[in-house]
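Chapter review. Work through the record for Acetone carboxylase subunit gamma before attempting the end-of-chapter questions.
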Amino acid sequence: MRVPMTEYLEIDVETESWHCRRCGHYLTSARRNYKEGLLVYDRNPQEIHRPILRADVYPFTFSPDPKWCRILEFYCPQCGTQVETEYLPPGHPPTYDMEFDLEALKARMAGKNSSHKGGNPA
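Structure tokens for Acetone carboxylase subunit gamma:
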């Protein structure tokens, strides 16, 4: 049984694996960071946030300095859906932002399935 976790990610409780919700592509084990199974584009922040002031005149242009900030875009390798975006300092690893108690999730799913057998769904 697959359980939606975000708009674009779901966990298959039986196989303990992350999948894309758009195409169903297997990404990685649900015991790991889902970002390990995605394609990453390390984007220059000035491509997205263009300087507002002239860089030849002003030292600060309201645009992130690539020496201080990078933008990581994460995509499904199968369908190309953009799953996540992170702003990080250069050299910082991608954040491990979601970790679920798979045993509790399995127990919860088993409880839901057993309560619906032979009766009307609640």
